[in-house]
Amino acid sequence: MNPKIILMVEDNSSDIDLTQRAFRKSHIANELVVLEDGQEALDYLFGTGAYEGHKIQRLPAVVLLDLKLPKVDGLEVLKEIRSHTHTRRIPVIILTSSSEEQDIGASYDLGANSYIRKPVDFSRFTEAILQLNLYWLVINEIPPTSSK
């Protein structure tokens, strides 16, 4: 059985490193795919651009999505994910430093499953990553790929 894929869309190298360290420290064995801009994420999910021919049948079990991204921002990525039958059921967790009410509201309006503000402290961040993994990849039932 293939390990579940976690897609992280994040452009901040420090946050990427912090997340990878938190995964290692929490002994999370799932495959972590890191993409650094919104267009790359869309290409990955839909098999376009640099990912032309990419096996899109193996979708991520969960997407960790930052809001402030180059090329295509996180809200637009979320909107695209939710507008296609192939991807609309993928759980999307907004993982961002923004605590703006406008960002929180827009994320939920567009179909985010959860909104988490990144803790600054490494131990708190590691605990948040561990809880994310426990809930979204162990406890939660991943929806089947939509056939419509």
Q: Summed up, what is this model?
A:
The protein is an alpha/beta fold. Helices cover 40% and strands 16% of the residues. It has a single domain, classed as Rossmann fold (3-Layer(aba) Sandwich), CATH 3.40.50.2300.
Report what the structure shows.
- There is one protein chain.
- Helix 1 packs across helix 5 (122-139) and helix 2 (38-46) packs parallel to helix 3 (74-83).
- The protein has a 5-stranded parallel sheet with strand order 2-1-3-4-5.
- The chain has one domain (7-139): Rossmann fold (3-Layer(aba) Sandwich), CATH 3.40.50.
- The chain has helices at 13-25, 38-46, 74-83, 101-109, 122-139; strands spanning 5-9, 31-35, 62-65, 92-96, 114-117.
- It is α/β, with parallel strands linked by helices and 148 residues long.
List the helices and strands and how they pair.
Elements lengths: L4 E5 L3 H13 L5 E5 L2 H9 L15 E4 L8 H10 L8 E5 L4 H9 L4 E4 L4 H18 L9
Parallel strand pairs: 1-2, 1-3, 3-4, 4-5
Helix pairs in contact: 1-5, 2-3
